[in-house]
Amino acid sequence: MNTLLELSGVSVSFDGFRAINNLSFQIGEPELRAIIGPNGAGKTTFMDIITGKTRPDAGRVIFGEKSVSLLKMSESQIARSGIGRKFQKPTVFEAQTVRENLAMALSNPRGPFDVLIYRKTPTGAARIEEIADEIGLSDHLTRRSGELSHGQKQWLEIGMLLAQDPRLLLVDEPAAGMTPAEREHTTDLLKRAAQTRAVVVVEHDMEFVRRLDCKVTVLHEGSVLAEGSLDHVTKNKDVIDVYLGR
Ligand SMILES: Nc1ncnc2c1ncn2[C@@H]1O[C@H](COP(=O)(O)OP(=O)(O)OP(=O)(O)O)[C@@H](O)[C@H]1O
Ligand SMILES: [Mg+2]
């Protein structure tokens, strides 16, 4: 497995508070990784640094076989180079159908242009069916996205990200607000997505993390506190003290 993304010695402070503190992290391709840790540990900030939303005060962030520095790239350049991010709140176009949303994501990585052209091409249509199948929305392609359940909207948004075929997918707290059945479907979907790419999932729900069945990184005060299998990290005394024992 090749390393796809590497952070080393990364720090960032907000008004003198060190949200990320000399953080080092690596993920391979393909790989599924869960990130856990208490509120304020720096999990979201970690994703903000990778996507270029937040610029670190120190450290390196290196991506791909050419070892390009993400710190020299704009947010949109980072997105175009194959890093997709899913925020907590789904941001699908509610007035459009599921098919139209997927068509938009396929047609242009950055915006809803050429939609009508793209969806009429045979490869575009086939790809939409494929993604719909992958996210479990094949029977909902003609529905308006606003009518979908919260979980279905989340899957659609993941599908829209997959349409852009990212090499690295970042997902922040996908299980929040989902029913148990939706959570189960979401773990399946993320595991499948991670067969061909790197996927980082931040999640508090331990059942969800257990089902992901992957290496876990525990963040605390902006650094890695422990790393390994879920069983390994949940036996770690420091992890119990700062996170599990709350
Ligand atoms: N833009 C910002 N300006 C000031 N402080 C910030 C900013 N972003 C994050 N922080 C602070 O940095 C710390 C880490 O926040 P972050 O959102 O990364 O934590 P988290 O691990 O995602 O927490 P949660 O589990 O609650 O989502 C927090 O103390 C937060 O208040
Ligand atoms: Mg967060």
TrEMBL record:
Residues 5-246 form the ABC transporter domain. Coiled coil: none annotated. SMART domains: AAA. Keywords: ATP-binding, Nucleotide-binding, Transport. The keyword Secreted does not apply. This is Urea ABC transporter ATP-binding protein. GO terms for molecular function: ATP binding; ATP hydrolysis activity. GO terms for cellular component: plasma membrane.
